């Protein structure tokens, strides 16, 4: 169902950002609970955490279904731009 006016959850933003940045998959064993590892956004969260894009409470699966705030969007964009800048500097070194 398409809901353009619905708030975006942390899980949705995590998966979209992971797909956009094309971050490589890493092992999901960083979370101890099998329920947390099976969350549909778990792989994307682990990838972005390892890449340094996600920090703090974004990395906890219990917060995945919370709505994303504007401040969190700004933080994610800043971290994403840092990642892209680091990638570009390695390409041209």
Could you please describe the fold and organization of this structure?
With 93 residues, the protein is mainly α. It has one domain. It is 51% helix and 0% strand. Helix 1 crosses helix 3. The longest helix is centred in the last third of the chain and has 22 residues. The model has no long low-confidence stretch (mean pLDDT 82).
Distance between the termini: 45 Å
Radius of gyration equals 14 Å
Total count of helical runs of at least 4 residues: 4
Structural class: mainly alpha
- Reading the helices and strands in chain order gives HHHH
> What does the average pLDDT come to?
82
Largest sheet data: none
β-strand number: 0
* Strand content range: under 5%
The low-confidence parts are none
Helix content: 40-55%
Shape: globular
Tally of discrete structural domains? 1
